[in-house]
Amino acid sequence: MSDAGDYSILNTARAILCEGAICDHCLGRQFAKLSTGMTNRERGHTIRLMLEMIASTGADVSEPESERAKRGRCWVCNGLFEELDTWVSRGLEALGGCEYESFLVGTRLSGLLSENEELLWEIVGTDYAEPLKSELNREVGKRIAEKTNRSVDFTKPDVVAILDLTKEMVRLQIRSVYICSRYKKLVRGIPQTRWSCRTCRGRGCEECGFTGQMSVESVEELVATDVIEAMSAVDIVFHGAGREDVDARMLGDGRPFVIEVKEPRKRSIDLARLEQEINEHCEGKIVVSDLRFVDREMVRRLKSKRHDKVYLATVSCAGVDQDTLVRALDDITGMIRQRTPSRVVHRRADLVRERKVYSVLLESFSVDCAVIRIECEAGLYVKELISGDDGRTMPSLAGAVGADMVVTALDVVAIKDQVGESYSSNSH
Ligand SMILES: [Zn+2]
Ligand SMILES: [Zn+2]
To answer: 81 C-alpha vs ligand 1 centroid, how far in Å?
Structure first.
């Protein structure tokens, strides 16, 4: 180091000490970038010793540090670094009720301390300095790691302990857990996710008892109860790979979905047991299967995939004979032009889409009712493929037969991914 460098560091250190009482942590932290393998406290202590030695040789003409300045409470951190153990205990207490393998400490600085730090930096500059926050995070983190035998993780900690200096408390930010599964819906009338109240659109009104929600039980709520209890979580978010109509059943292998578990205090639970609990509690309504832990990334993958479907549609067809019906099925195989159905046009853009019907088969036929198996591209509206929706869907079964036709019951029996393979846990 050059002489100029020596002087500049010592002069800076003297300038800092002239500002008032300062602890070794805060003094050393202003030179944190100059040496490694030393804590700020050791660094500050060393600098103080050096200045004292220089002063005692008489070579230093500046005022030695006054006794008051040495003993008083540090004006920069206001004594915070003397309370490290208090913050460690607060952190341990907050983390106590939480299951985690890795953690991180963060700090919410008080206005006073950030002002103090800025004031100091205006005087002495920030060339070699480390922010107060990062020293506090590191020092508290180190101690918690020692006491808990858990590791500090800077990129993806299970939990972040936030030291809130103003409120003198530690808050936890617990990382969500993601569970992938599939559901079957055995009965009609269950929506996939929570339904906002039609009257108030979720704001809460008399109609919905100020819950903002319709009183209909959804797949999301059915699953939520057991997941929230098993993982001591605050809430869940339900991400489905598309959704079926409320009045359609979801059969076959079920529909893939991901549960985002918010603020779980337990993370490593027995998923086979959870699956059993959900299925017992939801018996006769829904069945879940293949529960497994996944990454957050899975939500994006699930949402971005467009799944081809196989449906079984029960169609009322009074007055139509079987041969006419079977011939008409050929006419609705291939490319279908669909304008947004009149039943959903109030909430979706009025567009014309082209979707493919891969195959249509007559499964069963009676005098006034037929069951038809339809394999089609993602996004095709099956009810309108049958009814024609007043000419908005072309071609349609009603149009091909020349009579009114309507779907009286609809089931999704298979959900396939883009390449046509059945979506299963083995395909990933
Ligand atoms: Zn200090
Ligand atoms: Zn309402």
So the answer is: 6
